[in-house]
Structure formats: structure tokens, C-alpha cells
Design a protein that fits this description.
- The chain is α/β, with parallel strands linked by helices.
- The chain folds into 2 domains: 65 residues, Methylated DNA-protein cysteine methyltransferase domain (Double Stranded RNA Binding Domain, 2-Layer Sandwich); 78 residues, Orthogonal Bundle (Arc Repressor Mutant, subunit A), CATH 1.10.10.
- The protein has 6 helices and 6 strands.
- The strands form 2 sheets. Strands 3-2-1-4 form a 4-stranded mixed sheet, covered by helices on one side.
- α4 packs across α5.
């Protein structure tokens, strides 16, 4: 059984549950609906998962800086446990959006030469297993509206305000 490690990072809006493999970050979830135990139990069905805060020292320090409103380069390796080729392509592009900037769903669709695929880009963003690291909160609608966000629109708005994004 594959070994996973997790930590809980406290944030003023909610805890972040963070999972890593030996190879890289695998999952982050906003702890608004699930408890820590519920979150970990979902992984225990397929993996051996253990809490180990030491594995996440560098990431936790970067998250401290990020939530203080400072630009951070989240360049940690990732080890995605799921995702189609299309989703991974979108996530790779989204990960390249700089701090404090946004792109529209349509702009990302154009980047992959599929200008009519804005909804598919939105669906891929909705399946993003590593919010903040893969900053899908930086993807907005063409009209300037936020669009959707798995953590809730209030969190998407808070993250964009933290980065001083004006829509």
C-alpha cells in the first residue's frame, strides 16, 4: 500500500488539509465540510496515511508568507493521484499564472487551441486537487465575475484580495 503523509494547516477561514507522497504534494482541501478524521478516512481506503507535520515544514513556511500577503513561488514537486490528461494540461497552465494576476477560462482555452472549451477549462479547474499550489482561484470569467470555486466563492474572493487583484 502506498504511503501518504498529511498535515493540517490552520487558516482564518478554515483549516487546510494537505497530503503528500514521497514524490510531492498530492492534495489540498479546504476543511469546511469535512473534519480532519473524515478527510483522512477517505484516503485510508486506498493508502496508508500518517500525519507528519515535519514533511511539510517548507510548505508551511511558504503558506505563512502567502497568507501574510507576500508573493510566494509554490514550486514544490507535485504527485497527482488523479486527473485526466486534459485536466493535467489545464493544471500545468494554471500553475504558471503569476501571483497577483488572473486569466479567464477563455484565455486558457485559447492557449490549448480550443477556443470553445472555456466550460471544459472550468470543469478541469473544479477538479483541481491542489488549490493555492495550482492557483485556480486566479481563473475568472471574461466579464470579470469570479466564476466557480471548489472552496467557495468567499475563499476565492479572499485569495484574490490577498494577492491584491482588482476585477
Amino acid at each position: 500500500m502506498r504511503q501518504l503523509f498529511y498535515t493540517v494547516y490552520p487558516w482564518k477561514f478554515c483549516d487546510l488539509y494537505i497530503v503528500s507522497t514521497d514524490s510531492g504534494l498530492a492534495n489540498i482541501e479546504f476543511g469546511r465540510v469535512k473534519t480532519e478524521q473524515e478527510y483522512v478516512s477517505a484516503f485510508r481506503k486506498q493508502f496508508d496515511i500518517t500525519r507528519n507535520d515535519d514533511v511539510f515544514k517548507t510548505l508551511r513556511a511558504k503558506l505563512d508568507q502567502y497568507f501574510q500577503g507576500r508573493s510566494v513561488n509554490f514550486d514544490e514537486p507535485v504527485d497527482l493521484l488523479r486527473g485526466t490528461l486534459f485536466q493535467r494540461k489545464i493544471w500545468d497552465l494554471v500553475r504558471q499564472i503569476p501571483y497577483g494576476q488572473t486569466r479567464t477560462y477563455g484565455q486558457i482555452a485559447e492557449q490549448i487551441n480550443k477556443p470553445g472549451a472555456a466550460r471544459a477549462v472550468g470543469a478541469a479547474n473544479g477538479a483541481n486537487p491542489l488549490p493555492i499550489i495550482i492557483p485556480c482561484h486566479r481563473v475568472v470569467q471574461t466579464n470579470g465575475n469570479l466564476g466557480g470555486y471548489g472552496g467557495g466563492l468567499d475563499i476565492k474572493d479572499a485569495l484574490l484580495r490577498l494577492e491584491r487583484v482588482v476585477l
